[in-house]
Amino acid sequence: MTRPGPSQPRFRKLAQLLAALYLCGLCTGALAEDESAFLEDAPVVLSASRLSQPLRDAPGAVTVLDREQIRASGMRDISDLLRLVPGFIATIAYGSYPVAGYHGLTRDRSNRMLVLIDGRSAYSPYFLGGVEWNNLGVDIDDIERIEVVRGSNSAAYGANAFLGVVNITTRKAMDSERVAVSVQQGEGGIDDASVAGTVKSGALGLRIRARQQRDTGFADFYDGRNLQLLDLRGDYQINNQLALEMHAGTNKSGAARGTYEDSGDPPRWATIQQSYALARLRKSESNGSDWTLSYYHQHEAGKDAFSVPIPPSFAAAYGLPLSIVSDSGYRTNRDDIEFQRFETLSQTARAIWGLGWRHDSVYSPLHFYGVDTINTQDARVFGNLEWRPSSSWLFNSGAMIEKTSLSGTKTAPRLAVNYHASNQQTLRAAWSRAYRTPTPYEVYSNTKYVYDGKVLRWTDQPAESLRPERITAWELGYLAELRSLATTLDVRIFDEKIEDMIQDRKVPLSVPTDQISPIRPEARTSVNGDRARVDGIEYQLMWRPSRRNWLSIAQTLMNIRSSEVGTQFEVRNQRSAPHMVTVISGSRELGYGFNVSAAHYRYGRMNWEQTEQENLPPYHRTDLRLGYEFRAMGGKAELFLIAQNLGQVNNEFKQRYETDRRIFGGFRWEY
After folding, report:
1. CA-CA-CA-CA torsion for 51, 56, 60, 63, nearest 10 degrees?
2. How far apart are alpha carbons 71 and 597 in whole angstroms?
């Protein structure tokens, strides 16, 4: 069964709006042809092709969230900021685990998109992969901008950029305030504090940040969290050509898990500890070319152990104790090195190319029973060529060739052509193919609960001949940058075909006679199964007369179709994202130091857990932020009040988890 597509009247109205804006752009374009300021002020992005490009030259749709938008949102979690981006959905799973996804197909893991923090991948090699949003290792106040590539971008960043890229760039230490302090407290146990200090000496800048973020999760559930961060950034301009960038830090997330109603899943405190270090050397050459060499190491360790009671009769019959310890602790290590070079080939052509190598190790006695450590390697070569044969036409071609120990050698190509109807309007067509490499868990999972050589429970078995997921994507784009109207319109029409989707299925167990019985006759394993097709349209219209004053409307209309009609996988995929999402947001300076911002979100029916029992009804959410800025102790200060989810109580994740109103306030001071 396929959900009906957007109604024809709605598409007709949208087409009329686009036609009107196109004609308006042609008219206003004539007035702006000679305005060099228009070209100077145009947003420049790096994430689409790794080349520095104006939005109108990028080979894909890119949304940029800057510092003003981030602060005005009032969001505490970086994942929640993605609510402002067309095509994205976000929520808090189980009260303490943020999750976000683009175009659905996410469940409670963000494992089909890539998140980068200053070039460091936040894609975890553990379990089902994806992003540990609580352990990104960055404070939201240190973010300079977030570039979100809407659509597959494996040609630039590899297999994990399957459906998109979230590229987070932090402020340079030399651009940071000497001292910055912020606190906020309120409903839901919100208790956040952050302090940063910066030292600048000649060409060297060092910033250190400490942060704590706490809340109690959903009401009536044991699911609070406590996040701690210590982060260091250094920038050193060695000479006119060489620059060194350094990052190091550690963070720890603690989350309440379990329930008082289930003795097999008792209340407990689980933690994830992460540490990281990154160094990047960049050389700019006199001919305009440059090269970059970067290396980072990342370590992650999770702890989650608890006692599980054994029924007395069962324990007596098989010689077992009355309780055993279930320990799902793990450790991962990652080392990544990459070289990248940019070159201007001629007046009409530019290129960027590079190569890299990554090593991941995963240790988890529970999930990889009988194996000490899973080691995987990834070698990659990439490149992108930009060719401008005339002022109106621009061609981008790029590819990533990856060889991994989990899926062999794959090539992810992309072709895009941009037509500039004027210096304010661009039409774009693009095609790409990409792959998502299976995680070590999807390939090698062998989860056994064993006591004294006896298998008490066997829940997961290794996969057989698992192939990487594959996506073939087409898109048409339209970008209008109407300077005289202070208005930007970004439209993306997409058609994404995903094949060999990795899913878990139950298979019969073959249990040796010397192992304990009774035992569950089935276990999960990963297989290539369903195919999905995602198509629709998304757009964002923004009026922004100044950096701190804007009004924006973003909307996504989308269909997800499944090849396995009438099965649980059809339910999983088709309802994994709302058919329609609308977001209206704005910010306004009121004068005398006062400012106000608000956002209203409307979501259609969907299902995060992707079971019939967890269908969520449509809901809407309204957030409001009021601020008052003033001078204090020689610096800039702000008092602010934030109200989230004003109005009705919503079910954003599961039917039994109610997201109610939260009001909290805070103080910020920078010197």
Report:
1. 90
2. 10
In the CATH scheme, what is the homologous superfamily, with its name and number, of domain 8-670? Answer: TonB-dependent receptor, beta-barrel domain (2.40.170.20)
Provide the CA 403 distance to its chain's centre, in angstroms.
24
Contact 39, 56 (CB under 8 A): no
Q: Half-sphere exposure of 523 toward its Cβ, with a 13 Å CA cutoff?
A: 21
Spatial distance between the Cα atoms of 226 and 213, rounded to a whole number of angstroms: 6
Q: Where are the domains of the chain?
A: 8-670
C-alpha torsion angle, residues 578, 618, 223, 122 (rounded to 10): 20
pLDDT at 87: 95
Tell me the per-residue pLDDT of 230-260, one tens digit each, with 9 for 90 and over: 999 999 999 999 999 999 999 999 999 988 8
Beta strands of 266-320 (E only): which ranges? 268-284, 290-303, 305-309
- Is residue 242 a contact partner of residue 248, using CB atoms and an 8 Å limit? no
Q: 226-251: b or e for each residue (b if 16 or more CB lie within 10 Å)?
A: bbebebebbbbeeeeeebebbbbbbb
Nearest CA-CA partner of 27 in 424, 491, 487: 424
Q: What global pTM score does this model have?
A: 0.92
Give the position of tokens 């250094």: 234
pLDDT, tens only, 363-420: 999 999 988 899 999 999 999 999 999 999 999 999 999 999 999 999 999 999 999 9
Query: What is the chain's alpha carbon radius of gyration, rounded to the nearest angstrom?
Result: 25
